[in-house]
Fold this protein.
Amino acid sequence: MQGIAKSGFRPGSYRSTLVVVIGAILAANAAVAQQGSDDELVEIVVFGRGETRQVQTVTAQQLEQLTPGTSPLKAIEKLPGVNFQSADPYGAYEWSTRIKVRGFDQNQMGFTLDRVPLGDMSYGNHNGLHVSRAIASENVAGVALAQGSGALDTASASNLGGTLAFTSADPAQMLGVNAALTGGSESTLRAHVRFDSGEFLSGTRLFASYTNQEADKWKGAGVQKQEQVNFKVVQPIGAATLTGYYAISDRAEQDYQDLSLDIIRRRGADTDNFYPDWNAAVGAANVCAALAFNAPICDDSYWNASGLRKDDLAYLALALPIGDALSWNTTAYLHQNEGQGLWGTPYTPTPGGAPMSVRSTEYEIDRNGILSALTFTAGVHEINGGFWVEANDFSQARRFYGEPNIAGPTRSFVEFQRNPLLTQWQYDFDTQTLQWHLQDTLTVTDAFKLNFGFKSVSVENEAIPVLVASNTVNQQSSIEAKESFLPQAGFTWALSDSHELFGGYAENVRAFVSAATAGPFSTTQAGFDAIRDSLAPETSQTVELGWRFRNATLQGVISAYYVQFDDRLLAISLGAGIVGAPSALANVGKVETTGIEIGLLWQPIPDWSVFGSYSFNDSQYQDDVVSGTGAVTATAGKQAVDSPENMLKADLGYDNGTLFAKLGVDYIGERFFTYLNDQSVDARTLLDLTVGLRLKGIARVKDLTAQFNVTNLADEEYISTVGSAGFGNSGDRQTLLNGAPRQMFLTLTAKF
């Protein structure tokens, strides 16, 4: 990416620090080398042996080597087919976080934690929460990615494409305390402490953890902070197991300013919001108003912006064997959320006060659900059937809060706003989800296994107005996505102990979004009336075929896939703007995707490992987009936005039980951010480094670990997120976020 300004880091001092730290660790390793290690090298990536679909699992060992606080999403960026972007070094800043797999966006995938649905994990989520709020990174046991299609029992109504299943760690068998402290770039300070009870009473085990993290933004001013409490208990009841989990999260993120290529050329990539320069923000707002809100100064920078989220998530799960051939698994869960997305807008001045106000999009989620399934084994058949039911009440409002004192700000952007100046609109959305499935896994021979079945999905969305404006849906409205038969079939064929073929076919549907800012309700009443009886939900058909192999030193997977994505939804004009015709969602055709994925893990000698993946993905729009006025946007044959054709990832790792180190390389090719492919961001290559030392039996400390992480080791200047503010047909757009420069962190972890 040309024209991105340097960030003012001092490479010489960073190199000196790196040399000192690595030297100290190597010296310490030499001193303790005689201790040796009885630990075998654990698989860092599991390639899904025996699965009828493309699946890989990243293990806890790999998660532990990331900077504490890093999103588990970032842990899978090395896997084949994964395009992951974020403007912060942790991959946790939600406005910027994007994951795309095989051409499908984040809101077209499925996400679960211990089988509990997390919704589509988009910003301003209407039916879930980001995994970084659902669980502290230190408590994640693993992440399993199914690139093509998740299992039939996945609790998701959005997984046109892949699924991500996060698993929480179980309480430890022995009494203990883990404590970790991380410090580093941008005044980062993260503290994590976890207490494990060990087994007591009748086999009860539990853990409770507290996490507090705060860091300055790497450019501009502001903080990004989060407090979390996680609690988990496992209770055996005879042959059954009862598991309970509870998570509290309080997160506040001050935002980075969205950029365009033009802004980067004119003002530099370090451009950010005005905060804390109140006078500059007031001056820009006055100029903006004098120019009738038609000048770059209105949108190049805003006074301030932030995202605030508070969540409570809980579940209770029962695993009950009923004899030798039957088992029953049931999970009941609830989730409550309060959120505000804030920005200081010059477009709505405060009467009698500053030429600005604080605009808020506000969210409240209250959802609960049940997942239940029976598994019956009879001879060569393993039959599984079950259901998922969820009731979700989602409230959304647009409010403005006054800044009455022109001499200075009166509102903090890291605190929830109260006492609004006005409410523009407010809706309650009721979403009822019912999904059930039935499948059979047939062991034809010891080497050949078939899996086939189907699921049925019904999602009813209802919008209930509380307070409305003339340009929004102003009466009670409803729409439904329903597919009674979505088949899935697959096979595995073990050619030998070392080689296995697999393949499968799956159909999926994505339910409509219940929100005033996205989905079918984000239009006028006339617009909604025009589409409600003709709009079809998005669907997909996925075919994949692959080969897994393994020997004493090498294992891997090679797969090929074809995806047909039908009834793509896009907001288009339904008529001439001069007569007030609205824009609304419309089905604009299909996308076809073909590709290959290669993943390899090579362990040539003890303690050393090399992991690599390569992906080629060709996602193309198959149809031109035609608006209600007959205007044609010639998208047929164009590459899908934010879908690089080539991605190459690699890790070189060393771990002898005492000393560990990893150097990661992440290459992603050119990405378009217009549907006509006339604007793009350049390819980029990032390097990350981890170096650490583990010591055992020092005084009363069972294990002591010192870990040094460097993200973006080469300090590359690049665009990370594209599409932060959506995509346009052509031309430049303020929808880019540049990635964080080199950042360094040191973590000390002690286990007692």
Summary: Residues 11-32 form the longest helix (22 residues). The radius of gyration is 26 Å. The helical segments are 11-32, 60-64, 72-75, 131-134, 261-267, 278-290, 525-531. Residues 1-42 have pLDDT under 50 and may be disordered.
